[in-house]
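In this section we walk through a basic example: taking a raw amino acid sequence and producing a predicted 3D structure, encoded as discrete structure tokens. The instruction is simple. Fold the sequence below.
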Amino acid sequence: MQWETVIGLEVHVQLSTNTKIFSGSSTAFGAEPNTQANAVDLGLPGVLPVFNEGALKKAVAFGLAIDADIGKRSFFERKNYFYPDLPKGYQTTQLEAPIVGPGHVDILLDDGETKRVRIHHAHLEEDAGKSLHEDFHGMSGIDLNRAGTPLIEIVTEPDMRSSAEAVAFAKKLHTIVTAIGICDGDMSQGSMRFDVNVSIRPKGSDTLGTRTETKNLNSFRFMEEAIKLEVERQIDVLEDGGEIIQETRLYNGDTKTARSMRSKEEANDYRYFPCPDLLPVVIDDDYINSIRSTLPELPDAKIERFIDSYGLTQYDASVLSATAAMADYFEQTTKICGDAKLAANWCMGELSKFLNQQEIDIADCPISPNDLGQLLARIKDDTISGKIAKTVFQAMTNGEGSADEIIDAKGLKQVTDTGAIEAMVDEVIAANQGQFEELKSGKDKLIGFFVGQVMKASKGQANPGQVNKILKQKMQD
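The resulting token sequence is shown next.
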């Protein structure tokens, strides 16, 4: 039987406010355990929460960025459950009247087609603390620094049909929340976490199958692996005559295995009721429009501008606009070198390769856009070849100086003197007369051999275009 995969996501996005959603405790990452949790975060008797308007503004900004309905009257509920990392015994969240209503995110698929993923809603809530299971001699430790950190939970419709689509959506969402500045997007620190709902059904059926939820995936790779593993598991179960149980599952990215965590709860298991300590949040059009006016250029608009202004392909524009930092770096580099396509190729090629190898973010790159732009300008004016530029780039990453300093110090200027290049071509032809006759008789592939020999003789400094031109002239003599 042929099966169709159905995927929906619930994405927890930590909002980059300085303080927590209902208290003045700091949200800074990396503090000593339990040093950033006060009486409000712990829900001690007699304390009252105060809503952080900064979290509201960021949630509204997200809603506007995905063209969603904004709830002009939203309110908070208590979601009752007990875990050690939630000492209050309930989570303050939104259910019936979330701040962000239906919206959408458009994603680019591998085949070049665009697909729309519908957003059911996004609601504000507080994060829980963190359970620590290492180094406690068979016990668990609890760090409550994260308790009360403001989140928006983004809930999609079940519109994705493969792990690739789910990852494309997650990456696009990451681009949006970082571009508008509501989240730093650092998944290693838990700033974005994904819960994946997966079910399968016979191809052509409109009836949804029983879904499972795999929780707390904190990388795109883990998400893709977990979805593929769960789809295979569900197919095996059904084809062996079994039934899928609605449950919550966990995925271990180190061992690439998954396990059942617990049976899946329903909303009524949490006994939601309106929070008696918080008033409804009421906003109007003026408030919404004031936030709209502060939004930066959105990713889709940036992609279109890159295509129109720089002549880039849809793919290149999408890659370069994936983060605001990369987009800014590309534009500054282009301004210096004057060639958008060359800048795009280097940003996506040598620069990205270097960043990946060093495992650093572009913000920490030792080569500034001005430095890279100057290097590319030397390619444009034929001072150096593209091949030599890679050598210069490597030296720049080692801190050996600017492009011009390295070119001068290492004597890397390209040979453009026609007479000198012609002399080298003549020497190579004389040493390989038989192959040259074959080239003249129609074995065009041999031209690569001769260009290579001349480049070798010039130690890579001859202008390849001039070498080709002179060789073709010699073939006609």
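Looking at the output, two observations stand out. The first strand starts at residue 3 and ends at 14. Residues 220-239 form the longest helix (20 residues). In the next section we compare this with other chains.
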